[in-house]
Each structure stands twice: as structure tokens, then as C-alpha cells.
Amino acid sequence: MTPTTPAPSGASRGATVWREVTRHGLFWPVLALVVLLLACGVASPGFLDVTVRDGHLFGQLVDLLRNSATPLLLALGMCLVIATGGIDLSVGAVMAIGLAVSLTYLDNAADPSNVGTVVTAVLLGLAVGALGGAFNGAMVAGLGIQPFIATMILMVAGRGIAMLITQGQITTVTSAPFKTIGSGFVLGVPTPVVIAVAAFVVVSLAVRRTALGMFLESIGINREASRLAGVRSRRTTWTVYVIAGVLAALAGLVYGAPTMAADANNIGLMKELDAIMVVVLGGTKLDGGRFYLGGLLVGAMLLSTLERAVIIFQLPSQTTPLFKAIVLIAVCVAASPTLRAMLRGRRRADRSNTPAAPVETTSAAEVTA
Amino acid sequence: MKGINRARTGLAGVVATFTVLALAACGGSSDTSGGSDGGDGGDSGSDLIRVGFSQLGAESGWRTANTESVKESLSQDAGFDLTFVDAQQKQENQIKALRDFVAQDVDVIAFSPVIETGWDEVLQEIKDSGIPVVLVDRTVDTTVDDPYVTWIGADFKQEGTTAGEWVKENAPDAKIFELQGTLGSGAQVDREEGFGEVVGDQIIGKASGNFTRAEGKTAVEAALQAYPDMTMIFTHNDDMGLGAIEAIEAAGKVPGVDIQIVSVDGVRDGLQALVDKKFNYVVECNPVFGDQLADLIKKVYDGEDVPKETIVIDEAFDQTITQADVDARAY
């Protein structure tokens, strides 16, 4: 028997449970989120209150949920792409293109407030997102170009395309139904939250209730082996980029709808990095393979809470990037399996001077398992 | 050994060839762009003044109005051959555009710097080339001696001061939250300074909304929670103020009454908010100064003496503004 299976008696069982919990990939992000929220509640009484106003939920937590919708939508697509061993740098630019197309269509429509027109505008925006994703997918799956480079093309060119669509202007439109996408409520819950959760559920069902999720992971782990095993890796990879494109365009619509201004330069700027960060915080590794959709919820919430906490703590805006960086570094370091293996190894070595070697090997094996 | 050496020489040759090709390509492309912009035939030495203008981007309605005004005033009919480049709010784009202007050897370079610092190297290059520089709207902070001939634009600090004086007179007890523009931009630094000098002790908090509506809205959402006793918002531009209106309304308060809004810019949407009594005071930052810029560039080209600074005339509006005033505005 190896020493790693402790006798299940009393205190040590508690310790085992504790270790299991802390070893869970999401423990540290969740802990950071809870601590941040509580700290905000202490710094500013009433922060954690959620009230009903005019028949809908209102409060800082509701704002946070609404602000998390955009990064969550982006990260959903990004997570699938990363699972195949790829990356999609173009999501921010695709946000701008999707919004530019929708708003330009509305701007030129006879009656921008007509629901039918708005539905067409939204579908057009999503279709353009799909087109962008199809381009990325064709470059990556069809031509075998490195995903980083292939999607960087659209990341750089995308803003130019959005500028062309808006003719370099900031297109502003007035359309109540379109605005609802970003600032309305469904049964008291902000519409963006409903949209993001719906997208999350659909994607989760699609990848976990069908074989798609397994295909993605197999492609990410070994493309060639999965192809030889009969997975249509090219088509699957291409599909995933299309999904990411559609979700990015949807994120653009949700983000831009409240202000109804297609600002080609600023919409979605640097959001691709936010999306990657959310994916990593959620416990998915950038080298592909295993992916965790549930972690995205925590990651997205943590991101928007971080941004808000700076103002709640009354810190100057100059410190925002630093503040974000410190929390992220702390979370990543705390969650690092290598670090914990090192710590555990040292503690055991300290405790017992008896044969340390076999213990250390098993603990290392257990971590990598 | 010999083999390696030969390989190296070969490689160097290839590199050299590429460099020459790249240089040729650069020259070629700048020539064509100059020609196409010139319209009636490139370097015929016609009496058009060749101006390279690098706009920082199109981040707001103000900037768009400014761009329109510049393009309109620096037309061929007015005697200009304008090469207009949009930097899309990136300094590297702007520096590249400025270097292209030097390569094209334009007569006058005009630009609105996206941020204040980081221009030393490129300004020195322009200076060495002998092309006069006219700074537009924003200023630079540089170690280069005498980096530009003249500057034209609004006095941001004065705008901040004007806003502050209105507050001092009309709302001396207001507790003010300041919505800053993009940190480090001239407009943010100077408006904050000018405003702070007058009513600095009334400011209870500050946060940046990057001059955009969406970020202005999120910043104010948080600020309403963080600073519950706030009664006024001073915003560095109208767009953030418009975002603030949404956040205030969502919180069940009345913008312009429960929380007063003082803004700088005077774009149409902002003035409309003033008519609708959601803004309380707007200091104009007049973007339509293309004609003044054109005069200035002509003088610089002719070598006439020009003042180091030309201040664009700004107005200020309170809620007595009428719908007719707003409809009559050019932008």
C-alpha cells in the first residue's frame, strides 16, 4: 500500500476532503470571487443587496451578471476552439463587425423600431460572425495555418472591415427593440444574462450530450490519431471556429445594444485576451484537450467583479491593470499543481525523515494523474 | 568551414536583396498613394500645398466633426493636396503615418497626437527633414527642442476651468464624481487640472470611462454604489455623460435633478440631453476649425510668422438652450 491512501479515520478524513476540495481546479477562482465580493460588500454597504425595482432585479450583483454576459459568450466559443488545440484572436474584431453590420442595416432601414427589422438585423450580424468564423476555420482546418496567425489576420483586418461598413463614423441608431437586447429584462432578469445563459446551456448540451465534446478533446490531444480513429477532425475544427464567430458576433450585439453606437475602433478592443483569461481561469489549459465549460461562469464573473471592485474600493483608475494583474497572478499561482506538489513534497520531507523517495514519487504521479 | 562561409555570404545576399526590394516597395507605394490623392497628377509641382494630416481616430462624434471640417477646408479648390490618414487610436499607426509623410516629403505635416508622450524620435526625424509641423487639437510632451511651428486647438484647461466656475456659482455644495477620459490624453489631464483648480475640494471620487458611452455607463453604475452621497458628475466628454444618464436612470434617479451632469464637448447628442434637461451645463469644444487650420497652414507654408498657439473659440451652454439652437448646429 502506498502512503497516499490515508486511513479513513476522523481528522484525517476531514483533511482528505479539504485536500480534494482545494485540489479542484475551480477552488481558487471561486475563493477569489467570493472574497472579492465580500470585500466589496464590506467596503461599500449595500453592494450585495439585490432589490426589485420597476418589476425587475436591480443591484450591483445584477450589474455584474450583466457585465459578465459578454466575456462569457466570447469565452464559450474560445473554450471550444482552445479544446481543439487552437486559439481565436479575432473574437474582439468580430464583435465590432457584427455590431457594425446590424446597426448599419438598422440605420438604413425604413423603420428601425420594427421588430421584424430588428430580427433581420440581428440575424445579419450573426451571419457575418459565422462568415468570419468560417474564414478562420478554413484557414486553420483547410489550409493548416497556425491558429494564432490565421485568426490574427481577422483580428487586424476586422477593425478595418468594421470601419468600412460604418464608413469611419460611429453609427448611432434609435431602436427600442434592439436596445432591449442589451438593457432590457426578461421576467426581471437582464436580457444579456438570459442570452448568455441560454447560449451556455445550448453549447453545454451540444458538447456533453453528444459526442462532439469528446471529438474536440481528441482533436486537441492528438489531431492525427483522432483522424485515424475516424473523427472528422477538419470538419469538426471548422465547425468550432464558426460557432466561436457566431458567439462573438452575439457578444458584440449584446455589448453594443445599450448604447446603440457602432464604434468600430473600441467595441471589443482587447476582449480576445479577456476571453482567453476567462477560459484559463475556468481551468482549461491552453494546450488543448480537456476543457471545462462550468469554469467559464466563474471566470467571467471574476473578471467583471475585478473591474468593478477598483471603483468600489475607490482606487484611482490608473491602478486597474495592476489590480487585475495582482489578483490573477495570485489565483494562477495558488492553483498551480506544480507549486502545490513542491509544497506538499517539502512538508512530507520535513515531517518524516523515513524513506522520502517513494512518497515523493507517488505524490508527483498523483498530481500529474 | 568554407561551406559555412559561403552559405553565410549567400544568406547576406538574400537579406540585402529583400531589403532593397522592401525599400523599393515602400517608395513605390508612397508614390502611388501621393499620386492618387493628388488627383490631377502627382509631382507636377503645381501650386497645391501638400499636407499630410494624421488624425488620431474616430473615437467620438466630436472627432468625426473635426475630421469633416479638416477635409472640407483642406480641399483642392482651396489650394491643398491633402493626404489624410486615420491612426485608429494607435500611436504606432500614427508614427508610421508621420514617417510616410516624411518619405513623401510633404510641405506641411499636421497631426493630432493620440497621447502626449513617446514622440521624441519621430519628431526629431521630422525636424531633421525640415518639414514644419502643425499640432492640431492635442499637445505633445517631448524632449525635442522646438518640435512644432504652431499649435491650434481648444484650451482644454480653460474648458475645465469654465465648467468649474459654473459649478462654483450654481452648485457650491455639490459632491462631485469626476468621469475621466482616456488616462494620459491631453483632454483628460488638462480638463481635470482646470476643473480641479476651481472646485477640487468638492470632488469626492474619480474613475475613467475611456471617453466611451459603454464604459462611462459601467463606471457610473459602480460609482453610484461607491459614492452614495454624490450629487453631480463632471464628465470629460459628452459620450461618457450619455452613458452616465443610462446608469443613473437605471438606478431610479433623475439625471439633471438628483444627479446633475456637467460635460465638455457640445456634440449634438450632448446638447440634445441639455435640451431634455438631463445635462445641466455643457462647455463646448468646437471641432469645426478646419478654416482656421487652413489659414494657419498657408501662413506656415509661406514662411510667415505665426503665433505659437491659436485657441479655437469655445462657447458654453446651460439649460436655456432651445431645440432650434441644437438643430441649427453643424455637427
TrEMBL record, chain A:
Output the InterPro entries linked to this UniProt entry: ABC_transp_permease
Membrane disposition? Multi-pass membrane protein
Q: Give the Pfam families listed for this entry.
A: BPD_transp_2
Transmembrane segments annotated in the record for this chain: 26-51, 72-103, 115-135, 147-165, 185-207, 236-255, 291-315, 321-343
Sorted keywords for this record are: Cell membrane, Membrane, Transmembrane, Transmembrane helix
Q: Where in the cell is it found?
A: Cell membrane
Polar residues bias: start-end ranges: 352-369
Q: Where is this region: Disordered?
A: 345-369
**Protein name listed in UniProt:** Sugar ABC transporter permease
From TrEMBL, chain B:
Give compartment(s): Cell envelope
The UniProt record lists the Periplasmic binding protein domain at 52-304
* Entries under PANTHER family matching the protein: D-ALLOSE-BINDING PERIPLASMIC PROTEIN-RELATED, GALACTOFURANOSE-BINDING PROTEIN YTFQ
Magnesium listed as a keyword: no
Name the protein family.
Answer: Belongs to the bacterial solute-binding protein 2 family.
Coarse class of the primary localization is other
**Keywords from the UniProt entry:** Signal
Q: Where is the signal peptide?
A: 1-24
Please give the name of this protein.
LacI family transcriptional regulator
Organism the protein comes from: Cellulomonas phragmiteti
Lipid metabolism among keywords = no
